[in-house]
Amino acid sequence: MKLTTMTQVSVDGVMQGNGPSEEDRRDGFERCGWALGRGDNETRTFISQTYQSADAFLFGRRTYTMFAPQWGAMDPGSHPIADALNTKPKYLASTTITDPQWANTTVLGGDLAAAIGELKATSAGELQVHGSGVLIRWLLANDLVDEMTLLIVPVVVGQGRRLFPDAGPDIALDLVDSRADSKGVTMQIYRPTGRPQYAS
Fold this sequence. Notes:
The structure is a single chain. The chain is an alpha/beta fold. It has a single domain, classed as Dihydrofolate Reductase, subunit A, CATH 3.40.430.10. The chain has 5 helices and 8 strands. Strands 4-3-2-5-1-6-8-7 form an 8-stranded mixed sheet, sandwiched between helices.
């Protein structure tokens, strides 16, 4: 399977608290909801279609615990994203959740890199990661991401946890696709290509 990520980020790279105001107030974060209502219908359709194209999903613990009670409780046919999440396999990278209640969830224990490597090698299709910033940073550091989609919202949040840390791996990227919607949200799809080359 191809491992892909999709992340909403601000222009300054913040991904924390993009949803409802109560979603993520860690470290005194007060600017939740900065991405709500920002994309147009075309962008919302793109996001829904992306979820629907997944063959399986991979979650970090925090995003899983936010998604499960919301999307997992929705009735079949009520929303295309819920239908995708509730009918396709879910894999959870967590050392603290051992008995997940969201149906069709498998906890990946032990050697996480080996477990994900096995998933990628065993079948065709797409293994998607949504949210899960800590997990995405780990996947990038371990060269496990095949493609990443950034939905860049035209706002500088000015505080909060960022997708890319101040000190992390350096990664060269090929731009696969790029477009902007009518509300100024840009979609950038990148393919990691190893380490960048630096001028001597």
